[in-house]
Amino acid sequence: MMDRRGVLGLSVPAALGVMTLPAAAERRPRFNIDEPLQKLAELPGTSSYKFEVGTNGTIFNAAYRSDAQMFVGSAVKTFFLLKFLQDVERGKKSESDLLPVNNKIRSLSSPVFLNLRGETPARSLLEAMITHSDNTATDAILKSVGPQRVRRLVRRMGLKSIRFPGSTRLLFSYLAGAPYGVDKGWRGMKAIMQDKLFGFPRSPDNGRETMKGSADDFVEYYTRALSGEFFKSPATLTEFKRIQAMASAIVRVVPADTVAYAKGGSIEWLDFNALCLPGQMIVSGTPVTFCVTVNWDGPPDTIPVVSGQLVEAMSEILLEIAKTLAPGQYS
């Protein structure tokens, strides 16, 4: 989560969503989710979604503007987790490694490590990055694995829409008017919190320092990552799932007592706002992979309204899918 208010953003009217069913659909479960899907398509500003029931949508899929590259915020942090665990698997790192937490990496929106300094195990940083979206933990992990190495990994995956900064501090510095590539440090971050900028503010929806991705790419990524494609050891996949299952956004949209893995993202910067939630839930052994994103312009009082609409629609969709896949298990 990145909480700063600001201006600038793009707004595109919503259009009708598109749903596709596989061949022989009459033999497949029927999901009564047209109405909540339409609600997602009609969210303010620009929205996008993709839902796949069964691996690669073999049972059902629904998509709306799913190829659109949109601002997704901290949803990109899943790639930093995956790369670190790959390094652990290959003997380059350990989750017990002590990594520094200090003003050299301290960033905004760090609910766990904001006022702490010293060293802490990488495992605690990974968990704080996913569970609480702590940006100081994120920058410690990203510094450890190297942003260029993560970018090369994403390119090898073929996920062309994914973009992320070299650190969250570089992102905040750029959005607050600093030249591209200039990290204004912890002192600069505190200045931002006091509404002191370094130049003309920029939109998070830009082509240089940003966090972007498409629903298509996130759904493909979670399908492949959670199947174990990017790990050699089942133990590493188990650890990846354990940490991804700690994301706080899961309980807001996934039916109770359902296994799920996710990492959401958001931003409030001047008048630009974004919400994104990609991930996967498992119902009776069937994967249900999803990504919903919305970007819109509006004052702070629009955030709880839009967030409530998105959460309500996603909850309806995922509950209906779960009830259809496992009759009697969900009410």
Automatic annotation (TrEMBL):
Pfam families: Beta-lactamase2 (PF13354). GO terms for biological process: beta-lactam antibiotic catabolic process; response to antibiotic. One of its GO terms (molecular function) is beta-lactamase activity. It comes from the Bacteria. It is an enzyme of class 3 (hydrolase). InterPro entries: Beta-lactam/transpept-like (IPR012338), Beta-lactam_cat (IPR045155), Beta-lactam_class-A (IPR000871). This is beta-lactamase. It comes from Microbaculum marinisediminis.
